[in-house]
Amino acid sequence: MPVYYxxxxxITDPETFSQYPPIVRRLLQKYGAEVLASDVxxxxxxxxxxxxxxxxxxxxxxxxxNCYNDPEYxxxxxxxxxxxxxxxxxxxxxxxxxxxS
Length: 101
Description:
Elements: E1 3-11, H1 14-17, H2 20-30, E2 34-39, E3 52-58, H3 61-69, H4 73-83, E4 84-93
Antiparallel strand pairs: 1-3, 1-4, 2-3
């Protein structure tokens, strides 16, 4: 079943952050992922909006976790962590299935 990364963060160092997307694009291709949405001008209807918001679809949870844990991603992760703040990365299943009572 497909899963989705929902990412939100504020870019604090645009020059350093510019190194992040090219590395991530290659890894997303490697794991069959697709960027469904990515925007630096999202409209917050509730709560505090972050500067960058993205939704990335992976074919399954294993592919998403393997991408996140890939040794090639670790330098990119360090770049993201160094150049952003207020980061939230959430992995969600395609459909919510409430537990039966």
